[in-house]
Amino acid sequence: MNKLFSLHNGFMNGASKVDFLAPLFFRIYLAPVMIQAGWNKLSGWEGTVSWFGNADWGLGLPMPEVMAALAVGAELVGGIMLLIGLATRVVAIPLMVTMLVATFAVHWENGWLAVSDSSSWLANDRVMEAAERKDAIKSILKQHGNYSWLTGRGSVTILNNGVEFAVTYFIMLLSLMFTGGGRYASADYWLCKLFCKEQK
């Protein structure tokens, strides 16, 4: 048993030397997602503001121009800051807020799954009903289109637009809020090296 604990401790001590990789990979993964989301909102500004403000087919938020600008700033600027690891803990907070808004205002009623998969144990009635629609789409494509070409880059699927991605991003951002950008590969680390009195 002592040998097992010794082996475990040796592995964990070795792994701690590269523990900066986890926040680095989270940042590299999240940055393009956030930047793209912010860019999409900015490039379609009028539509974004309408969607934020319209209660019938959008989010119905007050002050839609301000809310849209805050979302664009958080995602576009925040995504760039995540990429370089600058003010990572601070930037994670508004990005988490945007993920919470996305989760509860946009995706919540659709359930968990981002893509309709009727074989999943997380499939709800909406996903199960989408299976029939998917079969109908495939039948139409096979009858009236070049099905092998149309599906040459991936199978036909139906977007369910559930909370899966937004919640996953929120958890990754929450982790970054606690860990920061990580050692060696973040601007935060090097700035602290230069200006902090004590560096762990």
Helix content: 55-70%
Instruction: Give the number of helices.
Output: 9
How many runs of DSSP E, i.e. beta strands?
A: 0
Largest sheet: none
Portion in beta strands: under 5%
Intertermini distance: 33 Å
* Overall outline: globular
Q: What is the rounded Rg?
A: 22 Å
The residue ranges in which pLDDT falls below 50 over 5 or more consecutive positions are none
Mean pLDDT: 91
Number of domains: 2
Write the element-wise H/E pattern from the N-terminal end onward: HHHHHHHHH
Structural class: mainly alpha
Descriptive overview:
With 200 residues, the chain is an all-alpha fold. It has two domains: 21-109 and 163-200, no CATH class; 113-161, no CATH class. 68% of the residues lie in helices and 0% in strands. It has nine helices and no strands. It has helices at 2-15, 21-43, 45-53, 64-84, 88-107, 125-144, 147-150, 164-179, 187-195. The mean pLDDT is 91.
Question: Outline of this structure?
Answer:
By secondary structure, the protein is mostly helical. It has helices spanning 2-15, 21-43, 45-53, 64-84, 88-107, 125-144, 147-150, 164-179, 187-195. Helices cover 68% and strands 0% of the residues.
Mind sketching the topology for me?
Blueprint: H1 2-15, H2 21-43, H3 45-53, H4 64-84, H5 88-107, H6 125-144, H7 147-150, H8 164-179, H9 187-195
Helix pairs in contact: 2-4, 2-8, 3-4, 4-5, 5-8
Give short descriptive properties of this protein.
200 residues, mainly alpha, 2 domains, 9 helices, 68% helix
